[in-house]
Amino acid sequence: MKMTRKEFLQTAAAVAGAIALPGTAASAPLARQRGMDEGFPASERKGPKRGVSIYSYEHEFNVSATLEDCLIEISDLGMPGTKIGLEVLANAHIKNYPNPSTAWIDDWYKMLDRYDIIPVEYGHWVDTKLYSETQTIDTKEGVEMLIADIKLASRLGFTRARTKVGMQGGASMMTQTPADNFFEIIKGALETAQKHNVRMLTEIHIPTPLKGPTMDKYMDFITKENTNPWFALNIDFSVFQTRMGPQLGDRPAPAAGGQASHAPSWMGKLPLSVPEDMIPLIPYIHCCHAKFIDMNDDCEETTIPYPEVIKVLADHGYDGYMMSEYEGIDKLQGGAWPAVRKQHVMMKRLLGEA
Asked: DSSP characters for 192-222?
């Protein structure tokens, strides 16, 4: 008999509540042990692995779904012997961020162990425009902000941090570059990142291409300062979009007399990158955002060439997670729940897990 998602959540929560949990003193160190070496258990399969960002469920989170509901749903996407990875957005999903209580952290580790989930990536922001659009924050303050997030990520068992930063550079998003003192802020936190085994990853996202001046800036810094793996890359699969598709933020044209909203200036220039552009970058890629927009009834993504993307990653030694990020047009109406499931059917098929 097929269960609805609501029935599954209720049943799984009831079963989990009946299981005797290990004490906090034992369970937290066990979960933290996942953060050693490459950050993945020795039993994990090599190659690209599946994970989910709770960002996919952002319109249900704390409205119709709790953090535990999201973890139950994500856990159900795993397979025997293959753990599922997790990404959170720090200021959205961590209660009382940036100072969660000890009780909340204890519950966090209990849930990770209960649902057999690996904390992979901690999403956070270096808010370089904290005070104004024209004034970049002081480097010292930026370093302190970054170090605080690295320490919290480590406390929660994460080994990657999606370190997002304010951009600058005029009207064209395709030519924008990091804030002037961003690399100095990163340098100031490198020692802390290494000490706490947290890789800071800058996200390469549409419309920034994998070949161009912005990527050149990142790679020049990474190679000259020898920052890999403590500062490296997260590739968002949106850079491979071949068409925009029906996605979050789309607006239909007015019924009569009005003008349709303007498409982004870079839309007509897609595709910005091809999967093969990742090949020289793979040693520097420590997590990927598996962005997806439109899953058809055959569990195929219609806007991003997933077979080619995953083949390049698998054939060239990528040994990390792909974190589901849904941005389809029905996300506001609960569409993420079935869409993420369809995406994982597709990824299991492409990874040879199905």
From this structure: HHHHTT-EEEEEE-TTS-SSSHHHHHHHHHH
pLDDT over threshold 80, residue 93: yes
Does residue 17 lie in a domain region? no
Q: Does residue 253 lie in a domain region?
A: no
CA 160 to CA 309: how far, in whole Å? 21
Domain that holds residue 142: 23-244+266-351
**% helix, strand, coil for the chain, step of 5:** 40, 20, 40
Distances (CA, A) of 121 to 51, 203, 297, 302: 10, 12, 30, 26
Residues in the chain: 354
* From 205, 262, 286, 316, active-site residue: 205
* Residues 340 and 77 sit within 8 Å (Cβ to Cβ): yes
Handedness of CA 80, 58, 182, 174 (dihedral sign): positive
- What average pLDDT does this structure show over 55-82? 93
Q: What's the DSSP call for residue 181? A: T
Q: So what's the pLDDT on residue 7?
A: 45
Does the residue 254 lie in any domain?
Answer: no
- 34 close to 117: Cβ distance less than 8 angstroms: no
Alpha-helix runs per DSSP H in the chain: 5-18, 24-32, 67-75, 90-93, 102-115, 139-155, 182-195, 213-224, 306-315, 336-351
Q: Whole-model pTM?
A: 0.84
Instruction: Please confirm, yes or no, whether 344 is among the known catalytic residues.
Output: no
Residue type, 284: Y
Helix residue spans in 196-305 (DSSP H):
213-224
What gap in Å lies between CA 179 and CA 200, rounded to an integer?
Answer: 16
Torsion sign, CA atoms 284, 276, 121, 128: positive
Task: Give the CATH number, domain containing residue 130.
Answer: 3.20.20.150
Binning pLDDT at 50, 70 and 90, where does residue 13 land? very low
First to last CA, the chain: 21
Structurally, the chain folds into a number of domains equal to 1
How far is CA 265 from its chain centroid? 25
Q: What is the DSSP letter of 154?
A: H
Residue 335 resides in a domain: yes
